[in-house]
Amino acid sequence: MARILVTGGAGFVGSHVVDELIGLGHEVRVLDCLLPTAHARWPSDLDRRAELVEGDVRDPAAVAGALLGVDAVSHQAAMVGLGVDLEDLPGYVAHNDVGTAILLRELARSAFAGRLVLASSMVVYGEGRYTCARHGEVRPGPRATADLAAGRFEPPCPQCGDPLEPHAVTEEAPLDPRNVYAATKLHQEHLCNAFARERPEVAVTSLRYHNVYGPRMPRDTPYAGVASILRSAIEAGRAPCVFEDGDQRRDFVHVRDVAHANVLALTGPEPVPGAFNVCSGTPHSVGDLARELVAANGSGTPAPVVTGEFRVGDVRHVFADPALAEAGLGFRAAVGFAEGVREFATAVLRAPATTPAR
Questions:
Q1: Do 230 and 306 touch, CB atoms closer than 8 A?
Q2: Tens of pLDDT along 279-315?
Q3: Burial level of 330, CB count in 10 A (0-12/13-18/19+)?
Q4: What DSSP designation does 355 have?
Q5: Over the stretch 124-183, which tens digit does the pLDDT of each residue have?
Q6: Percentage helix, strand, coil, to 5, in the chain?
């Protein structure tokens, strides 16, 4: 059995990674700074068989101590979500990019030669994959604010302006981050890839999570994912509000599946370097998610309200092809959308978050 460090292991995804690793008999050390946007203290649902170390990946001494004797590292620590405004920019860069840089430097200093698994994100793609009937595969640019304000949410063909057909995105797609969080996630990948070129004895696997949902999501915070925001509204007795027209498509993947992908990358028979989509392989709209949550909560639950609001940094459609992760990691999502959303509708969420430290 291996000794594995999980940075951010007290968090939403990290805690599920910890659960599965401990269930398989591995020794687990958690390094977490208990970022207020996620939790204010060690969560009660975190498996206490793990060694819990309160510390920040931006602190070289904390990282060096946490790395002692470990065989593999699961790097989950990050500030997540689209953000509220540009005031969040230094926080994202500090936690995500600087924290990763310090982790990599300490890995090098400790002569680490194991596996490093990075929690990346589908946000590195920007928009998904599209084809135009006249021009084939095209890359639409960022959607114009004027179009969004007028309710024109679908990106047009950049060459002729015709409607586009969205398709599943593969790992070979061009990378085009379109908000601050996305830029930091791509930079994390670039930093890890640069490290791997200098230290070929370290296998680096980047897992591009799609829209993760499930038990232990933080509630009542603008930094949480759309699933948590919708669920929080329903729990408070409000109608869940769906932005744009609700038809934007995503791949909603259950957190236990995401944790399992991490464990496969960390403990499989052979290391599998590279980047992989972690997804269900079945797209659903945000409106589908809201309706499914309302149905799971039963009669009397307010119906979703489609607001037409938008966020400039959002993309329209991004959902994924799971083939490479299945071939390379042996990963296939096991929790179906309807099953997962029914569980999520009544699952325990994490306590309300506070204003983030910057």
A1: no
A2: 999 999 999 999 999 999 988 899 999 999 998 878 9
A3: middle
A4: P
A5: 999 999 999 999 999 999 999 999 999 999 999 999 999 999 999 999 999 999 889 999
A6: 35, 20, 45
What stretch of H or E contains 300?
none
Hey, which residues does 166 pair with through a beta bridge?
130
Q: How far is CA 38 from CA 163, 241, 313, 357, in A?
A: 39, 22, 22, 11
Of the candidates 200, 139, 207, which has an alpha carbon nearest to the alpha carbon of residue 173? 139
pLDDT-derived band at 358 (thresholds 50, 70, 90) equals very low
Length of the chain: 358
Q: Which two tokens stand for residue 211?
A: 């829209």
Bridge-based pairing of strands 27-32 and 115-121 is unpaired
pTM of the model: 0.95
Could you identify the residue written with the tokens 């490479």? Answer: 324
Residue (of 215, 257, 258, 198) closest to 74 by Cα position: 258
Which pair of structure tokens corresponds to residue 34? Answer: 């208990």
**Helix H or strand E encompassing 219:** none
Pairing of strands 284-285, 274-278: unpaired
User: Phi and psi dihedrals of 64, rounded to 5?
Assistant: -60, -45
Tokens 């998904």 belong to 128
Contacts of 184 (CB under 8 A, 6+ apart): 78, 79, 92, 93, 96, 97
Closest C-alpha to 172, from 281, 317, 274, 316:
274
Count CB atoms within 10 A of the CB of residue 299.
6
pLDDT at 256 over 50: yes
C-alpha triplet 232, 121, 32: angle, nearest 5°: 70
CA atoms within 13 A on the CB side of 146: 0
Q: How many other CB atoms sit within 10 Å of the CB of residue 43? A: 17
Answer for the pair 131, 187: CB distance below 8 angstroms, yes or no: no
DSSP state of 290: H
Contacts for 154 with CB less than 8 Å, ≥ 6 apart: 163, 164, 316
* Helix (H/G/I), strand (E/B), else coil: 246: coil
Q: Are strands 72-75 and 136-138 parallel, antiparallel or unpaired?
A: unpaired
Q: How far is the C-alpha of 215 from the C-alpha of 254, rounded, in Å?
A: 9
Cα distances from 236 to residues 98, 205, 331, in angstroms, run 37, 39, 36
